[in-house]
């Protein structure tokens, strides 16, 4: 029992140090002052879409509502073998907004059954015309100054790849807990970039130079992995341009996406994310993930074996995460969501323990597609 006690203390020290470092990294990111640029860069906005007939109109409408010269961007919607009427909805939207440069392209089966998101993105990049690529998702919406902010940031930073913030829209308690947890992931990803040791980002709001994508070989080498269309590219570009990866810390650069409506959807999403955890070339990232998993496991175990000590571990975990999340949620102007932290903590431990194992076993469904 003393062995478990000392192991718990070591893991606690590791976790406090880890989140503390991420907190300092987040604070070290200077908010972008968003000075207006005289240059209008040209963007190709790529929207991979699979079975998004209900949401994609909102996404496209938010894009054409931009306070940015419409002649300086194109929108490419990639119909990723949708089994619903996504293609029909997009086609109708294009007809009604003929003044904008919006294209619908359909994935075509080439006999190799390349039916993963990376294939859809690569297909769209091959057909894009502009030097800067922006990835977003079909269930995302952006504010009117989204493109302007990205353009202004590029003008003052020699960025090869930019990770911009993403938030979960939330109405009920379940969604607010997800929003709180996802904001923490955004904060960790941003902090890791600032600390020159990038680990995660999101293709829901990712900007990079088209020639850099081609230079690093795109997704070659991990194109058979279901997820990681964001993080594997981040790691490749960082290896080539370690000083030219940035996080865009400005509220007008945020895109909003929908939280999962059910436990099943959340489980499938997290399984997809976790499925790549053993595929990272940088073993430091895997080691940190394993350490965090073991700490959460130890908290749960001590809550069973020694309730008081387990509560001390749980309170310590909540305290350091609360400090970190306070600053992240302040950026998103969602500080009130911290009231849900007491509910989020036990939920987070349980899902980490379950998904951490489950995500690396068997198959799962994502948008009516079976993956492994």
How is this structure best described in words?
The chain is of the alpha/beta class. The chain is 50% helix and 13% strand. The strands form three sheets. It has a seven-stranded mixed beta sheet with strand order 3-2-1-4-8-6-9, with helices on both faces. A three-stranded mixed beta sheet has the order 5-10-7. The protein has a two-stranded antiparallel ribbon with strand order 11-12. The model has no long low-confidence stretch (mean pLDDT 90). Helix 1 packs parallel to helix 11 and helix 10 (283-305) packs across helix 12 (341-358). It has two domains: 2-26 and 280-359, no CATH class; 34-274, Spore Coat Polysaccharide Biosynthesis Protein SpsA, Chain A. The chain is globular. It is built from twelve helices and twelve strands.
In short:
With 372 residues, this protein is of the alpha/beta class. It has two domains: 105 residues, no CATH class; 241 residues, Spore Coat Polysaccharide Biosynthesis Protein SpsA, Chain A.
């Amino acid at each position: 029992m003393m062995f478990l006690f000392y192991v718990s203390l070591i893991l606690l020290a590791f976790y406090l140090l880890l989140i503390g470092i991420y907190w300092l990294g987040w604070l070290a990111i200077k908010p972008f002052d968003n000075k207006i640029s005289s240059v209008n860069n040209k963007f190709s906005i790529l929207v991979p879409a699979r079975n998004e007939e209900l949401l994609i109109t909102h996404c496209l409408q938010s894009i054409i509502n931009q306070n940015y010269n419409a002649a300086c961007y194109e929108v490419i919607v990639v119909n990723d073998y949708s089994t619903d009427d996504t293609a029909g909805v997009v086609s109708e939207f294009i007809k009604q907004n003929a003044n904008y440069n919006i294209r619908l392209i359909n994935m075509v089966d080439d006999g190799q059954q390349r039916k993963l998101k990376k294939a859809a993105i690569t297909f769209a990049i091959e057909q894009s015309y502009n030097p800067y690529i922006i990835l977003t998702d079909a269930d995302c919406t952006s504010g009117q100054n989204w493109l302007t902010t990205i353009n202004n940031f590029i003008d003052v930073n020699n960025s090869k790849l930019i990770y911009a913030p993403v938030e979960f829209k939330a109405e009920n308690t379940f969604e607010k807990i997800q929003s709180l947890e996802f904001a923490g992931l955004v904060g960790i990803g941003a902090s890791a970039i600032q600390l020159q040791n990038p680990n995660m980002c999101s293709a829901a709001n990712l900007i990079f130079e088209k020639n850099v994508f081609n230079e690093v070989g795109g997704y070659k080498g991990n194109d058979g992995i279901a997820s990681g269309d964001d993080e594997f590219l981040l790691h490749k570009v960082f290896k080539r341009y370690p000083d030219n990866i940035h996080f865009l810390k400005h509220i007008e650069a945020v895109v909003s996406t929908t939280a999962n409506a059910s436990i099943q959807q959340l489980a499938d999403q997290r399984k997809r994310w976790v499925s790549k955890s053993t595929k990272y070339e940088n073993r430091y990232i895997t080691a940190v993930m394993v350490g965090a998993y073991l700490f959460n496991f130890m908290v749960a175990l001590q809550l069973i074996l020694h309730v008081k000590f387990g509560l001390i571990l749980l309170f310590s975990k909540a305290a350091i995460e609360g400090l970190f999340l306070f600053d992240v949620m302040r950026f998103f102007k969602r500080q009130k969501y911290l009231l849900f932290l007491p509910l989020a903590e036990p939920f987070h431990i349980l899902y980490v323990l379950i998904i951490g194992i489950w995500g690396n076993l068997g198959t799962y469904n994502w948008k009516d597609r079976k993956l492994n």
